[in-house]
Recover the amino acids of this structure.
């Protein structure tokens, strides 16, 4: 770290001393396997180029000074407390790693909010920096699971393990096939002849957190009524027919989505795209976590001749769309689709 780095220079100017550790972690886009990870399901994420960066240092005080460059805001939180705003993402990491002294923390992220795991990237970058600072004997899987605990215990979002595992373990050049129950994983190539395109719909996810926890409660109740530990254990989709609405549709999404991920492992690009299209329909109709403008953008993508498949990605209620397109055609698809979209969308990846 040198003052030639703009973040290091900004940290030094803000706090009056050099950072002692710094780390980054990427956002992720999920190609298939949405809303299955908190039911022990299968997922297929990949990392995106955009990252969250965290610089930190001990400050000798009894309070943490937390600065967000994106928000141009500094929060002060007593050691051992949680705080409000963006603070819980950081103080959760500090508290879980047993930090007993005040820290100066500077964060900057170019991961767009809305379906691309900006929060997981922030948590993993913070945990990586703390691991570096205090020489913590924690491997990348342990860091990911600690990030999940931050969401559950400090942020209040009962997420599964996919986002943090992807931010900790995935890279931008391959897919990460993850069994979220056993945490067994395999790095797989993208379908031959295709590339990934991510467009931000421009719709902020206003209901994502409350809606996410509601959906989790619904599928947990569906599991209870079906007599299984998790919907991962359901083998016959006809079992869903015994459930009352909306539990029937919620469970049908999770069970069918798991099947789509497993089918995608052996699919060529065209078939993989068809599975993405089916996933979006299921998320829209059965899980009801899409948004009219997201649906519009997905439909425009799906109608493009160079697009093999497209779907919403992330928790839903706004946010990003992911498409599998013919290799080399992502920019052309973007240039043709966005002018026809009624919202303010933008290209995120590649």
């Amino acid at each position: 770290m040198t003052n030639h780095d703009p973040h290091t220079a900004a940290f030094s100017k803000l706090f009056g001393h050099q950072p002692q550790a710094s780390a980054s972690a990427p956002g992720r886009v999920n190609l298939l396997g949405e809303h299955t990870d908190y039911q022990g399901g299968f997922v297929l994420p990949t990392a995106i180029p955009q990252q969250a960066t965290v610089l930190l240092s001990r400050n000798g005080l009894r309070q943490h000074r937390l600065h967000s460059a994106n928000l141009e805001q500094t929060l002060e939180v007593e050691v051992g407390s949680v705080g409000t705003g963006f603070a819980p993402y950081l103080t959760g990491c500090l508290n879980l790693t047993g930090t007993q002294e005040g820290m100066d923390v500077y964060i900057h992220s170019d991961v767009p909010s809305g379906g691309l795991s900006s929060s997981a990237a922030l948590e993993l970058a913070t945990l990586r920096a703390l691991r570096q600072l205090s020489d913590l004997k924690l491997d990348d899987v342990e860091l990911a699971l600690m990030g999940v605990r931050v969401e559950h215990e400090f942020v209040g979002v009962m997420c599964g393990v996919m986002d943090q595992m992807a931010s900790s373990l995935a890279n931008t050049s391959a897919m990460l096939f993850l069994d979220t129950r056993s945490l067994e994983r395999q790095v797989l190539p993208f379908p031959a002849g295709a590339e990934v395109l991510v467009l931000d719909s421009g719709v902020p996810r206003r209901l994502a957190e409350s809606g996410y926890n509601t959906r989790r409660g619904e599928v947990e109740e569906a599991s209870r009524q079906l007599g299984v530990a998790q919907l991962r254990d359901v083998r016959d989709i006809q079992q869903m027919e015994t459930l009352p609405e909306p539990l029937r549709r919620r469970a049908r999404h999770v069970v069918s989505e798991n099947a789509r991920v497993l089918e995608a492992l052996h699919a060529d690009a065209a078939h993989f795209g068809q599975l993405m299209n089916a996933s979006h329909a299921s998320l829209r109709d059965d899980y009801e976590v899409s948004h009219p403008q997201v649906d519009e953008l997905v439909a425009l993508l799906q109608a493009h001749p160079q697009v093999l498949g497209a779907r919403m990605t992330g928790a839903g209620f706004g946010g990003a769309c992911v498409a599998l397109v013919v290799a080399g055609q992502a920019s052309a698809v973007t240039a043709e689709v966005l002018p026809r979209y009624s919202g303010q969308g933008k290209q995120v990846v590649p």
In short: The CA atoms of residues 38 and 144 lie 15 Å apart. The mean pLDDT is 95.
